[in-house]
Amino acid sequence: MGSFTASMLIVLPLYHLLLLLLFTSFEHAGKLVSADDKLIEIECHNAEVPATCIQCLNSDPQGKLADRLGIATIVINCLSSKADILANNMSTLASSVQDKNLKSLFKGCEHRFFQGKSDLSIATIKLKSKDYDKTNHFVRTALQQEILCKKNVVKMKLRLPSNILFEMRVYEELSDAAMRIIDRF
Fold this sequence. Notes:
By secondary structure, the protein is mostly helical. It has helices spanning 2-45, 50-59, 68-96, 100-128, 132-155, 162-183.
């Protein structure tokens, strides 16, 4: 019985120490999430429309776990997704019109968004290699593809559907956010 009492004297403090560590780690886990939310807020704060940047980051499962480089990568990924959506929208518009000039315009825009997606892919590679000037160059080049499409639509005095205009506006906002985040590296 003496050895049982002696072993309990050793095990009991270890048990208390284990409980203390568990409760402490749970308390800090909540604080880590707040720190990640704070980092997202800090990184998106300088964007022209922080809410768009924050929404993009919150839509990615890795957003809360990302460091600054990860945040920039996620924003570029959101941009790439928007480029896909806009390319598909332009393809749909091209298929729905008979006028050769309009068809050509929408096909040109579709091509521009696919080119933008390619530029964003290169931007991601440059970001991971820490070539931030080139990263911003390719994000800017992808944005210019969208701007040229919009300029050509305006020149033809067309009115795009509101959902496409919304996607284009978000594309511009995310481009701004990505470039501002990368500028701060």
